[in-house]
Amino acid sequence: MSETLRIDKWLWHARFFKTRTLAAKMVSAGHVRLNAARVKKPATMLRAGDGLSFMQGERLRVVRVEALGERRGPATEAQRLYVDLSPEPEANTTNHSARVGIRPTKKERRALDAFRHTVS
């Protein structure tokens, strides 16, 4: 194992992205920061101890690289490659009845019908 590894390859090894191509696209688009500096080249070399930040879905991921890894192994092996420093995701405080743009569930629809019949 060498002392450095391509950033796209490491992101793939650590299982943050399903394919190496997808990891490379995220880096090329400038969505990944290495030690607080925006990275645009997937071939940028990464070392143990470096910090990475990027968006994964709607969640901000902040990780510190602990090891480089030799392969894309199982998830338990991938989790040993980094320390997750991400902020805790906000609790989902949305009320089901206050969902905007989403059809009510069958249970919610029955409750609405029952409410309408008692009010009339």
Tell me what the structure shows.
There is one protein chain. With 120 residues, this protein is of the alpha+beta class. The protein has a single domain, classed as Structural Genomics Hypothetical 15.5 Kd Protein In mrcA-pckA Intergenic Region, Chain A (Roll). Helices cover 28% and strands 22% of the residues. The strands form two sheets. Strands 3-2-5-6-7 form a five-stranded antiparallel β-sheet. Strands 1-4 form a two-stranded antiparallel sheet. Helix 1 crosses helix 2. The radius of gyration is 21 Å and the shape is elongated. The model has no long low-confidence stretch (mean pLDDT 89).
Provide keyphrases for this structure.
two-stranded antiparallel ribbon; single chain; 120 residues; alpha+beta; five-stranded antiparallel beta sheet; Structural Genomics Hypothetical 15.5 Kd Protein In mrcA-pckA Intergenic Region, Chain A; 4 helices
Largest sheet: 5 strands, antiparallel
Determine the N-to-C terminus distance.
74 Å
CATH class type? Alpha Beta
Looking at the overall shape, the CATH architecture is Roll
Helix content: 25-40%
CATH fold label? Structural Genomics Hypothetical 15.5 Kd Protein In mrcA-pckA Intergenic Region, Chain A
The fraction of residues in strands falls at 15-25%
Give the overall form. Answer: elongated
How many structurally independent domains?
A: 1
Q: Walk across the major sheet and give the strand order.
A: 3-2-5-6-7
CATH superfamily caption: RNA-binding S4 domain
* Secondary structural class: alpha+beta
Count every helix, treating DSSP H or I runs of 4 or more residues as helices: 4
Order of helices and strands: EHHEEEEEHEH
